[in-house]
Amino acid sequence: MSQLPSDKEFQLLALVAFKEKTGREVAKQFELDEGKSISYGTLYTTFRRMKEAGWVASRDDQDEDGRVRYFQITDAGLKAMNTARKRYETMAGFGLQTN
Hints:
Elements: H1 7-15, E1 21-22, H2 23-34, H3 40-52, E2 56-63, E3 66-73, H4 75-92
Antiparallel strand pairs: 1-3, 2-3
């Protein structure tokens, strides 16, 4: 995994940055924010990679519908997200400065 999150990883990190959320909650919020759905396969595979990188923590629980997996950003994930945010800000102004 690179030191910077991909666009999709950045989006998912942002969705779990302030509050632990279930995969279902993340998928629902992603669809509201992005205007398109994310497959559960993509969602959970991406979260697995980010967990391996140390960017998110997860825990399993149960509710009336069965198994539920919760995700929350870690300190390392917050650092990666902030580094990416700074990079995006720098890139947004690239070539726009005049002498």
